[in-house]
């Protein structure tokens, strides 16, 4: 259990709760849930520019990372098509993947097909079901994709000033503005309470909030004097109690709860807001194709990791369809902005390609 791990190393409850947030990020779990300790490990493994366990902002926003990958691929001869939805994977008479068919009927032929869509979209929507083993299909259908995440993007006309560390007179960002700011994390019991509310179908009344201000380090993201604030919040259920929809009223009511919490730490925050974008679990699924709104394409619980991701014995990126590979977060080792699944899948695909 995460709590046992943190208790061995730390005494401060606010510090333990802040560290515990990385054990439940993107997971419908509490710090008391068995296996939550691994999720913490997953988020602190690796390094950034030689610093172990470090994270960083992408200059220009996260979209700049996608553009960098696209430019590197194009420089090596890749052709990239956007706004061209795939209808299904094209199979030959021998059952091998031979490319994809787009929704407009265009066939794109290839010897190998790599999908970084979720396992659910790849195998339940894009692959002919009669070509897949029934037990494999059942396993993919049973993947736990519950998501507690609602993402709120905010535009503000001034830098938030926190009671614990007021702004400087010149309004320039201070060191804490350039880090992740965790709110409602004074104790792990608060995280557990927020989780419990969501399991009963109710958005947390005191949600866990991870607040980042990327424009404090990258001024080009906002006009001078203004800032963009990224709020990663938990817990919100994918399905509300009583089958109520996540309509505009429900979205705004939850966002107001989040803003009220921030206001208690940084008076004046609500008055500084000039725009907000609220993405609940159903929104994350609809817009980004995340099953259930799960940012990892499936829970990072111990029963869905390693040899079981996405299903045994298909953890090695190959699928039941020869020539079709899974290279996204639903494959080993799971989610996170690290590219490990894609790199590993590419190596496996290249190995097979050389033998064709």
Automatic annotation (TrEMBL):
InterPro entries: Amino_oxidase (IPR002937), FAD/NAD-bd_sf (IPR036188). It is found in: Mitochondrion matrix. GO terms for molecular function: oxidoreductase activity. Its main location: mitochondrion. GO terms for cellular component: mitochondrial matrix. The keyword Flavoprotein applies. Probable oxidoreductase that may play a role as regulator of mitochondrial function. Interacts with COX5B; this interaction may contribute to localize PYROXD2 to the inner face of the inner mitochondrial membrane. This is Pyridine nucleotide-disulfide oxidoreductase domain-containing protein 2. It comes from Rissa tridactyla.
